[in-house]
Design goal:
Layout: E1 5-8, H1 13-20, E2 27-30, H2 33-46, E3 55-58, H3 61-69, H4 83-87, E4 99-105, H5 111-118, E5 122-132, H6 138-148, E6 152-154, H7 158-167, H8 172-177, E7 179-181, H9 185-193, E8 199-200, H10 207-225
Parallel strand pairs: 2-3, 2-4, 4-5, 6-7, 7-8
Antiparallel strand pairs: 1-5
Length: 226
């Protein structure tokens, strides 16, 4: 049940100028795999060879993998996959005058931009896509939460969690009974304020880590109930 849709934004003269001047940046950060893919697609259009001397960053392993598949050697947090974890990297601590390109959606957390600017960087935000909330007809929502009755729900962003609440406002009991998987403690705090009680922050956001974390929790709960 996708609760976030991503639509690439149309090209603008401003974005074209930024990409044509890519070699002026010391650091390039992508906040998601989707942002990394769109960025590389556009860079390929303007640069037959990617400029050297740029340090690339992915907020998590999925984003870094997109850069790696393009022959780049990105940095990523050793532990965690949040903006906070990225900002702890040594190479992002002292940025006096450095130019940073931040590839992301048209709206989002401002933590990376604000923090890097406080550390002396000159940050250019490059919006590449917009996020929208898909529509589901009432009968489909009813089928999911009345008939299927999910025991586990994976909501890997705060916006996804908000959209879940908006999509199924009449099924709070079903939602609250499920194990809700969220990406970080910050989102877990949001979920608790929304009334969710059975929460899980997984050991990683890649498919294998998600499956292992959910299986471990369900096995533990089954053992306790036994």
């Amino acid at each position: 049940m996708p609760l976030l849709a991503r639509e690439p934004l149309p090209e603008t003269p401003e974005r074209r100028t930024v990409l044509q001047e890519l070699d002026n940046f010391q650091h390039v950060i992508a906040v998601s795999p989707f942002a990394a893919r769109l960025l590389l697609d556009e860079i390929d259009h303007w640069w037959p060879q990617i400029p050297v001397g740029i340090q690339w960053y992915g907020v998590g392993s999925g984003t870094a993998a997109i850069f790696i598949s393009h022959g780049l050697r990105p940095q990523q947090p050793d532990q965690g996959w949040t903006s906070e974890a990225l900002l702890a990297l040594p190479s992002l601590q002292h940025l006096s005058g450095d130019k940073v390109l931040l590839a992301r959606g048209d709206h989002g957390r401002e933590l990376i931009r604000q923090t890097l600017e406080q550390r002396g960087a000159r940050v250019t935000v490059l919006p590449l896509y917009r996020r929208t909330q898909p529509y589901y007809p009432p009968e489909q929502v009813r089928e999911i939460f009345d008939s299927f009755q999910p025991e586990v729900m994976i909501a890997l962003s705060g916006e996804t969690l908000n959209n879940l609440n908006d999509t199924a406002p009449g099924y709070r009991q079903s939602l609250n009974n499920a194990l809700v998987v969220v990406p970080a403690e910050r989102i877990a705090k949001q979920a608790r304020s929304d009334g969710y009680e059975n929460l899980l922050v997984p050991d990683g956001l890649d498919d294998q880590s998600l499956v292992a974390s959910v299986a471990s929790r369900l096995s533990a709960e089954a053992g306790n109930n036994g």
